[in-house]
Amino acid sequence: MSKSDLSRRGVLKSGALAGTGLALPTIFTASSAAAFTNEPTGSSVTLGFNVPQTGPYADEGADELRAYQLAVEHLNGGGDGGMMNTFSSKALQGNGILGKEVKFVTGDTQTKSDAARASAKSMIEKDGAVMITGGSSSGVAIAVQGLCQEAGVIFMAGLTHSNDTTGKDKKANGFRHFFNGYMSGAALAPVLKNLYGTDRNAYHLTADYTWGWTQEESIAAATEALGWNTVNKVRTPLAATDFSSYIAPVLNSGADVLVLNHYGGNMVNSLTNAVQFGLREKVVNGKDFEIVVPLYSRLMAKGAGANVKGIHGSTNWHWSLQDEGSAAFVRSFGTKYGFPPSQAAHTVYCQTLLYADAVSRAGSFNPCAVAEALEGFEFDGLGNGKTLYRAEDHQCFKDVLVVRGKENPTSEFDLLEVVEVTPAAQVTYPADHPMFAGGALGSCNSGA
Amino acid sequence: MFGLDNKDTRMLLVVAVLTLCAPFILNPFPTDSAMAQFNAGYPDLMQRFVIFGIFAVGFNILFGLTGYLSFGHAAFLGVGSYSAVWMFKLLSMNVVPAILLSVVISGLFALVIGFVSLRRSGIYFSILTLAFAQMSFNLAYSVLTPITNGETGLQLTLDDPRILGVSATADGSIPVTSLFGLEMRSTFEMVVGPWAFQFNAGYYLCALILLAAFYLSIRIFRSPFGMMLRAVKSNQQRMNYTGLNTKPYTLAAFVISGMYAGLAGGLMASMDPLAGAERMQWTASGEVVLMTILGGAGTLIGPVLGAGFIKYFENIFSKINDNVLHSWFSFMPDGIEDFVVFIIHPFIGKGWHLTLGILFMLVVVFLPGGLVEGGQRIAKWAKKRKGKDSATPGKTTPAE
C-alpha cells in the first residue's frame, strides 16, 4: 500500500524541499525598528487588564475591572478625578498619559497560569498593550510577571499577597503595590498577643500554592516569636470547595487557634465549615477556641456572612478609612457603581495611577524609564498614607490594617472594622530577608 | 510525491500552504479597522493553532483509527511540557533536546498507561485513562511539587544550572528559547498599507513540525498498520477469533498518539517556557476530544480544523467585552443599542463557552462528520451546480 520513493532523484528532490523549508524561518529574524516593545505612536495608548472573570477569584476580578475602568476614566479627564486630586504627585493632567488617550483591553485569566499567559500574550502581540496589570492569584501574577519580563513590558501586579512575587520570583519589570504575607504576620502578631496571650497552639490550614505556602511560613514565624506553638500545617487544594474533612482533625489536635491561610471562595467555605463544626464555641486547654484569617477582604466577609463576626485578620485597605484619598476614591467609585470598592479595586486603581504618573514623570513609555521613575518613589494621598516603592525589590511599604468582623453591621457593606493601623516601619523588612531570598530582579527589559 | 497518492499529496500541499501563509490568511482585516478584533494572525495564537493541531492529529491516530476514546490525553501533553522545561532548566535553551526529551518521556509514560488501560475497551478504557490523567494532575498539582512547582507552574529562574548554556545573559535576564541561536520569539513584521503581518520564528518551527507530523499521520493512515487499526475499530472480536493478537497494534497506536501529545507539550514549552498542572486537567483532555469530533473524527484534516476552530473561539471571542460591543453598535439609537448589547452579552467575553457549546451541538446534530463533512457537502453542492451550469449551452464558466 505504501510506496517509498528511495531513488537518488527522489531523495534529492525531498532533500531540497526540506532544505528550503528549514531555511525559510531564518529569513525573518530581523526585529522591528521600534525603540521598545509596543511603543505607542498614534494618539492613544493601550493598557492590558488581565483579571479572573471565572474561577474561585471571579468576584475580586470583577471588582478590579470596575476600578480599572474608573481609573481610565479619570486619567482621560472624565468623572470627578478620584484620587488624582489627592495624589501627592501632580504630574497627571487628566489628558490621558503624556497627552495620549488611554484605551484598554481586557482578558480572562481563569485563575490559571496558562490561560493568563495566553491572554497577556495576545494583549502584547495583538493589541499592542504597553503595560499589563491584574491577577487575583499569586500563582498567576508570578507567571504573568515572568512573561512581561521576557516580552519587555511593565507588569503592575494586582491582588497578589505571596512573598515570592517580590521575593524569589521578583522581576525588574514587575511592581507590587499590595502588601504581602510577611507584612500580615508582622501586623497581626502584636494584636494577637494582646487578644489571645502568648501561650497558644495554632493549627494551619493552607491553600496549596505559592501564596499559601509563604503566608503560612510568615504567620507561623511571627506567632512562634510570640511563644505560640504550631501544632500542624495542612495543605488544601485550591480547587477544594468542601473543607469538612480538613476541619474534623482540628477538633482532636489539641490546638486552640485555627489559622485559615485561605482566600476568596476557599476562605468562605472553610470558615463556614469550621463554624458548622462548632469550633468557635469550643474551649480547649481552658481557653476559648479562636479563628484567625490573616488575609481578609470585604468580599470574603460578605460571602461568609455572620460567621466572620469577631474574627481578626489583616487587609491592605478598607473603604471606611477617613483620609482624603480614601474618601475621594470611595466617593467616585460609589457614584459610578453604587457600592463601596474592595481592597482589590483599590490596589489596582492605585497601580494604574502610579504607572501613568511614572510615565508622565519619566516623559516616556519606555519600560526602563518607567521602572526607574517608580524605583524609590515616595508618595502619599492614595489611601495608605506615606508609601515607598522600594528600589531593591519593587515592593510598596505602607501601613497595614488589622481588621475584625463587625458584631453589629449597619449595612451589607459595613462588615469589617479597623482595629489597628500598623505603621509602615513595623512591617518593613530588609530586602535580603531569608523569606524573600533566592531571587534576583535581573535587569530591566524594554524588548528592544 | 513522498510516497503519497495524488489526493493525499494535494491535501498535504493544502495544509502546507495554509500553515505557511497563515500570517496573511489570519489577518484579513486592516489593523485599525473595527474588524481587527477578529484578526488571529499574531504569533501566540498561530502557535497555539498548530500546536493543538499536532495534539489533535495525534489523538486522531488513536481515536479515529482504533475507536478507543482516551479521556486522559492531556496527561501526555503535560508530561511533555514538564520534560521540556526541565531540559531548559538543566541543559540549555536550545529547543531540540527539549522537544526530543518530551517525546521520549511522554512515549514511555504512554507505554505504561496504555499497557494497563488497554486491558479493557469501550467505556472502561475511557474511564481508566481519565483516572490516570486525574492522578497525574493531582500528583503534579500537590504531591510532586519539587518537580512541578504545583499551582504556580514550573518556570525558569536566573539560578538554573543550564550546563550547556548560560544561567543568565550578560544583561542579567533569563535567556530565551532558541533553535541553534534563532530566537523563538523573534518576529519580523511586514507592513503593507493598513495591514501588519507578523512572521514569527517559533511559529514557523511549529508549522514545519506540524507538516511533518501530518505527513507521518497520512502514512500511518494509508499503511497496513493503519488498516489493522481500522479493523480493530470495526470488529475487534472477529480479529481475536481469527487468532490475531490486537493488543500490540492498539498499544502501538496509543504510544504513537501519546508521543504526538508529548511533542505538542514540548513545543508549547519551547514557545513559552512554563508548564502548569492545569495543562493535565480533565477539561484539557476533553478539549482535544471536542477538537477531533468537531473537525471530523477519523478524517485526516478534521482534527487540525477543529483545533483551530476551538482555539479561535477561546482567544478571540473571550476578549470581546461590552465596550467593544458598544463601539460596534454605536450607530443605533441608544435604547436599541443597549438592547442589542444585552442580547449578545451572554455569548461573548466569559460566555465564549456558551457560543462554542451551541456551535458544537449544531455541528454534531447536523454534520455528524464534523467540519470536514460540511466542506464535502459544500463541494458536492458546488459540483452539482457547476454540472447544471455547464449543461446550459453557450455559457462559459470561469476556471478556478
Structural class of chain A: alpha/beta
Our count of helices of chain B gives: 16
Termini Cα gap of chain B: 23 Å
User: What is the string of SSEs of chain A from the N terminus onward?
Assistant: HEHEHEHEEHEHEHEHEEEHEHHHEEEEEH
Q: Give the amount of beta strand of chain B, in percent.
A: 5-15%
Query: What is the number of beta strands of chain B?
Result: 6
Taking all residues together, what is the mean pLDDT of chain B? 87
Q: What best-fitting shape of chain A do the alpha-carbon axes yield?
A: globular
Compute the number of structural domains of chain A: 2
Question: What is the architecture of chain B at the second tier of CATH?
Answer: Orthogonal Bundle
The spatial strand order of the largest sheet of chain B comes to: 1-6
The stretches of 5 or more residues of chain B where confidence is low (pLDDT under 50) are: 391-400
Give the CATH superfamily of the largest domain in chain A. Response regulator
- The percent of residues in helical segments of chain A reads 25-40%
Radius of gyration of chain A: 24 Å
Which short descriptors sum up this protein?
heterodimer; A: alpha/beta; Rossmann fold; seven-stranded mixed β-sheet; 13 helices; 18% strand; B: 400 residues; mainly alpha; two-stranded antiparallel sheet; 64% helix; globular; disordered C terminus
Q: Topology, please?
A:
The complex is a heterodimer of chains A (448) and B (400).
Chain A: H1 8-27, E1 44-51, H2 58-75, E2 101-108, H3 113-125, E3 131-134, H4 138-151, E4 154-157, E5 174-176, H5 181-196, E6 201-207, H6 210-226, E7 229-236, H7 244-251, E8 257-261, H8 264-276, E9 283-284, E10 287-288, E11 290-295, H9 298-304, E12 312-315, H10 324-337, H11 343-362, H12 367-374, E13 378-379, E14 387-389, E15 396-397, E16 400-405, E17 416-422, H13 424-427
Parallel strand pairs in A: 1-2, 1-3, 3-4, 4-5, 6-7, 6-8, 8-11, 11-12
Antiparallel strand pairs in A: 9-10, 12-16, 13-14, 14-15, 16-17
Helix pairs in contact in A: 2-11, 3-4, 5-6, 8-9, 11-12
Chain B: H1 6-20, H2 22-25, H3 43-66, H4 74-90, H5 95-117, H6 123-143, H7 145-148, E1 154-155, E2 178-179, E3 182-183, E4 187-192, E5 195-200, H8 201-222, H9 224-241, H10 247-271, E6 274-275, H11 282-295, H12 302-316, H13 322-328, H14 334-344, H15 352-366, H16 370-391
Antiparallel strand pairs in B: 1-6, 2-3, 4-5
Helix pairs in contact in B: 1-8, 3-8, 3-10, 3-11, 3-12, 4-5, 4-10, 5-6, 5-10, 8-9, 8-10, 11-12
